[in-house]
Structures are given as C-alpha cells and as structure tokens.
Design goal:
It is a multi-pass membrane protein. This is Amino acid permease. Its main location: membrane. InterPro entries: Amino_acid_transport_2. This protein is mostly helical and 414 residues long. The protein contains 16 helices and two strands. The chain has a two-stranded antiparallel ribbon. The longest helix is centred in the N-terminal third of the chain and has 34 residues.
Length: 414
C-alpha cells in the first residue's frame, strides 16, 4: 500500500490566514509524533503480550501502525482544508455535526485521561525503584516538569520533545546492544506464546499509536510549510514502529514471557545489571514525559476548542483547562480503581473505534465544504473504500471482543 502523496496549487491567502507565530521545524514535528507515541504504551506492551507472545505483538504493530498512519493523513488533509485552527473535536463539529464533536471529544478525554493516569502511576513506581521514594511523591516529582512545559505551549513542547527523543533513542540503542551480548538472551523466546490471546494485545497497541490527537497541533506548527506535515507524520510513525518493536523484543528475548513486570523496563534493567537498571528506567521516565506533553497538550487544546475558551491569551482560562487535564489522572492513579495496563487497555478500546471512523467522516466533509484547496492531499490508494472497510472492521471486531472478555465470554489475555 502506498503512502505516496500528490500536490495541488495552494491558495496564498489561505496560507497566510493559517500561518501562526509558533512554527515547528521538521525535526520538532517528527519528535512530537515519536514522543507522543513512545510513552506508557512502550513500557506495557511486553507485559500485555506475555500470554500471546512477541510474534502476535509484532503482527499488530505492523497492522495498527499502517492503518493509524492512514487515518492521521486523513486528519492532516482535513486540517489543511480548514482556515481556522481547529482540534479534532472542532473538526468533527464542523464536518460531522454536534454529535460527532462530542463523540470525538469523549474519545480525546478517555484516551488522554487513561494515558495520563498510567503515566502518574508508572512514574511513581519507577521513581520508587530508582530513588526509594513513595509512589505518590515520585509522581509529584514527575508532574512538576510535565505540567510546566505543558503550560508553556506548542513551541516549548516541540523543543522539549526533540531533546528528549534524541536521548531516548541513544539510550535505547545502548540497552538493545547490551541485551544481545548477554549469554542468557534467547531469540527462541520470541517464538513462544499462544496466538489465541492475540486480540487483547491489539487494544494496547492501538494506544501506543496515539499521535492522531496531535495532528491538528502539528498542522498549526506547519501552516507555513504544509507539505512537510505528511512527511513528518510518516517519518515519525516509522521511527515509532522501530522503537515499539525493539523494547518488547529485547525484554522478551532476555527474560522470557514469564518474567515481565507491568513496567517492562524494571525487569529489563534488573536483568542487565545496575547500570542498565538506572538507564532503562530513566528511558522509561523520558518516554512517559514526552508522551505526557503530546497527549496533554492535545487534551488541553481540545478543551479550549470544545468550550470556546481562549486558552492562548487568557491565563486564567488556560489554568482552568490545565486543572482539568492534570488533576483527575493524579487522583485516579492512587484511587485503586484502575491498574497501569488496564488504563491503557480501556483507553485503547474506546478511542480506537472512534478514531477508526471519525477521520473518514471528517475528511469526507472537508472535501465537500472545506475553506481552501490545500497544497497537499491524500493519495487515492489510501482513501479507497476497501481500505476504510478493513479499518472499521478490525477496530469494531476488537471492541466487540473487549466487551465479551469483560463478561468472561472470551479470553481476556490478562
């Protein structure tokens, strides 16, 4: 399947109207994609696949990665056809209707709160392992820089993501190399597992590719160079796939399926030694931080969009929206109501269905009643009706499986 794009004449007036003062570089845009995707999901998918095994996980990483990239390109074209800077809920309201807008906003809320809850919980556990702090104190230490950059806005997020993503990639390369010179590393471990439990893994993988939510924010940053938006999306998603595959591959090859913790880097670091224990868990903290900024920033912007709050120019409105973003996840993380992996699983089920359907409807509406002819649009191959049917079928089937597993009618995988 080709992701080839085609280019059309741009409207200079539209481009000027879309240009904002917070421009992103290409590297910053790619880093936002990678940083948002590489969060709690990369730490949990090894544990989530401990019954299915690595090969079913790899299968879903390919399938979900391809289809998520396609739906992200749908959103990208829709934003470029719209003069006003709208988030997903705003795009849904304009091109699908009020019900679609609330459905999309609900998806943003569920996915973001599920993710940020997992980050609060996971960061507390990691800092407890690293520094011996109580989980709540560790989460608070994580929260301060996470919320601080979020408050500063899009450009601060882009720059911070760029620095942290570079550090994560270097650290991961070091850990990956160390894993494969260990005598106890067994590639045969990658072939173990039971394909019967592959479906539950899908929903956690869906969560790992969660950067659809930040495409409108990226479009704002690329409004002066729209041709770079789809390229940044594709490059970011390819890098995401490599990193998402590398972490569980290393952990499972080294430890086997029976010895994986919910936060995989704890097990990974313990198996490699003291230096790796600290390195792996610092990587995990950076991954959570980078994803917190991407999803938190998107959630913040969607709140402003949905309720028509000027969060860019009115500090008190921004503060109120920030409280909605950051406080519920902290409370839920220590409520005992939801575990680290279950937070991601639940978020993946709901948001996966919405994000499989809504971008198609938004793009259809944008092509009919958009404001301008964009300088880039999706290739016909990825907007073919057969592609859309496959995407909807896979995501709906997974949701049905998830509901059935809650009533113990099918294996839950956990």
């Amino acid at each position: 399947m080709s992701f080839e794009t085609s280019y059309l004449p741009a409207s200079n007036t539209a481009q000027r109207e879309r240009t904002r003062n917070k421009s992103l570089s290409f590297v910053e845009g790619v880093a936002m994609i990678v940083g948002t995707n590489i969060g709690a999901g990369v730490l949990s998918i090894a544990y989530a696949s401990r019954r299915a095994g690595f090969m079913p996980l790899l299968f879903w990483l390919v399938v979900v990665g391809v289809f998520t990239t396609i739906t992200m390109l749908y959103v990208a074209e829709s934003t470029l056809r719209t003069r006003s800077h709208l988030q997903l809920s705003g795009l849904a309201k304009r091109y699908v209707g009020n019900f679609g807008s609330w459905l999309m906003f609900s998806s943003v809320c569920v996915n973001s709160i599920g993710a940020l809850t997992a980050y609060m919980s996971g960061s507390g556990k990691l800092l407890q392992s690293l520094l011996g702090l109580s989980p709540s104190v560790g989460s608070l230490l994580f929260f301060l820089p996470a919320a601080g950059v979020l408050w500063l806005g899009l450009k601060a997020i882009g720059r911070s993501e760029k620095v942290i993503c570079a550090g994560m990639i270097l650290m991961l390369m070091l850990l990956f190399a160390a894993t494969f010179i260990q005598e106890k590393t067994q590639l045969a471990n990658l072939l173990n597992g039971d394909w019967l439990f592959m479906i539950p893994v899908f929903n956690v993988v869906v969560f790992c590719f969660s950067a659809q939510y930040i495409v409108p924010e990226m479009a704002r940053g690329f409004s002066d160079k729209p041709q770079q938006l789809p390229k940044a999306i594709i490059v970011g998603m390819v890098i995401t796939f490599v990193l998402l595959a590398a972490v569980p591959l290393s952990v499972i090859a080294l430890n086997g399926l029976a010895n994986i913790s919910e936060v995989a880097t704890i097990t990974w670091g313990e198996a490699l030694g003291q230096w790796a224990f600290f390195s792996a868990n610092i990587f995990a903290l950076l991954a959570m931080m980078s994803s917190y900024w991407g999803l938190g920033g998107s959630f913040l912007s969607n709140i402003g969009d949905r309720f028509n709050w000027d969060i860019e120019n009115l500090p008190w409105r921004r503060l109120l929206a920030m409280m909605i973003v950051v406080l519920p996840p902290f409370a839920l993380a220590y409520s005992g109501l939801v575990s680290f992996v279950n937070a991601l699983y639940i978020a993946g089920v709901f948001s996966g269905v919405v994000l499989s359907i809504m971008p198609m409807l938004i793009l259809k509406g944008a092509r009919v009643s958009g404001d301008t002819q964009p300088s880039w649009q999706c290739n016909r191959a990825i907007t073919h009706s057969s592609v859309k049917v496959i995407i909807i079928t896979i995501y709906l089937a997974s949701a049905i499986y998830a509901i059935a597993s809650l009533f113990n009618l099918l294996p839950s995988g956990w």
